[in-house]
Amino acid sequence: MDNRDIRYRAFTAKFCEHMATGNPNEWPTFDRLAEWFVNSPRGQSFKNARYSKMKKGLSDKEEYFHDLIRMLVTRGMARNAPHYYEATVRFLQSRGLSQQQMDDMEAVMNVLCTPPTPIPVVSSGIIDYLQLGFRGLQQIFEFETADRCAQLMPVKRVPEAIAWMFIDYGRQLALPRQVTTKEAIELTEQMMHLTLEDYQARAVRWRAQNPWTIVGFRGDDKMLGMSLALPVSAEARAEVLDGNQMTYDCTHSQIRQHSRFLIHEGFAIRPVEMHGDPSSALIQPYFAVLAQAAALSDFRKLRADTPLTILSTPGTPINRDRLDGFGYKPTGKHMRLTNIEFVQLVIKRHISDGFGAFFLDFLSRQIRDMPPYP
């Protein structure tokens, strides 16, 4: 194999933490794992030192993770499933993967591992760009761009996109129980105290007022998911935060074309039954959500003393992990009619606020020159 074809991965910190629980922990014993590797199609040996590093979240060649994960998701013929199989399945289900999707090794690896990279990653899945030299800048700024990842949702497809959100959210609420499409929608309606049809009608009005409120994640030939965010007045944010109105009750007079106060309403990967391909939604959602925030806030024009503030709600363990990763902090206030706490992210347009601010500024300048969408 050409060295340029070798890819590296690492187990995510969350999966390592999950498997390290219990006494003994949930990982397979080394003897059992070594036997599995010898009998695998590759027929390769496997050293305990390598296994120990992988369990700690350090990177290695992708082929080792593929063979190890294949063992983790193989139930076998024994009457009782191996403990490591049950632990892995619990984790995958908590991240929204159905039993059917667990047959897709690429989808499973995308949940358990960091994205593949051309060079090793350091602890916590951070790419060691120093090993790339100046090529690292190319990896950051040319691997994907805003217009390749974000697409303004066409008006006629807004109801469909909101259905993706209701299904995705309802399935997360139901975990570890598996539910049908109809049941998932009903669970979301109960939590939100609003029907899917009512929410769709509101979303159509938001999209008509501000095209960037609903953004699709662009794949090669279809949309892979969606994000919904509202740019609101300071007064509207205060009303929502104080529990006087629901986020989805924001009216035409409360929504702005640009605002440093955003309410991130929802995020969803397009469901399989609606022609989605969750295994393909990798870096596009990351870029698209940030591009949406940059566009709605017109981030490049913010002053250092007027930071961007994004309000959101965790709602489910998966969404909490996503928001924690960006650095959202608790507000101590809760959404009206629910016990869901609001969290917020504050980003100043200043070099001292780190790469996040720099990247939003970069995206907002890209967006200025993006071609219009229908």
Key traits:
374 residues; alpha+beta; Aminopeptidase; seven-stranded mixed beta sheet; two-stranded antiparallel sheet; 15 helices; globular
Descriptive notes:
The protein is of the alpha+beta class. It has helices at residues 13-19, 30-38, 48-55, 62-72, 83-94, 105-112, 135-142, 146-149, 158-174, 181-192, 196-209, 234-241, 284-297, 317-326, 355-368; strands spanning 8-9, 60-61, 121-122, 126-127, 150-152, 214-218, 223-231, 261-269, 308-312, 329-334, 341-347. 35% of the residues are buried. The strands form 3 sheets. It has a 7-stranded mixed sheet with strand order 5-6-7-8-9-11-10, sandwiched between helices. It is built from 15 helices and 11 strands. The longest helix has 17 residues, at 158-174.
At CATH level 3, the topology of the largest domain is: Aminopeptidase
DSSP helix fraction: 40-55%
- The CATH class designation of the largest domain is Alpha Beta
What is the element string, with H for helices and E for strands? EHHHEHHHEEHHEHHHEEHEHEHEEH
Instruction: Tell me the count of domains.
Output: 2
* CATH architecture descriptor name of the largest domain: 3-Layer(aba) Sandwich
The biggest beta sheet is recorded as: 7 strands, mixed
CATH superfamily descriptor of the largest domain: Gcn5-related N-acetyltransferase (GNAT)
Q: What's the N-to-C terminus distance?
A: 45 Å
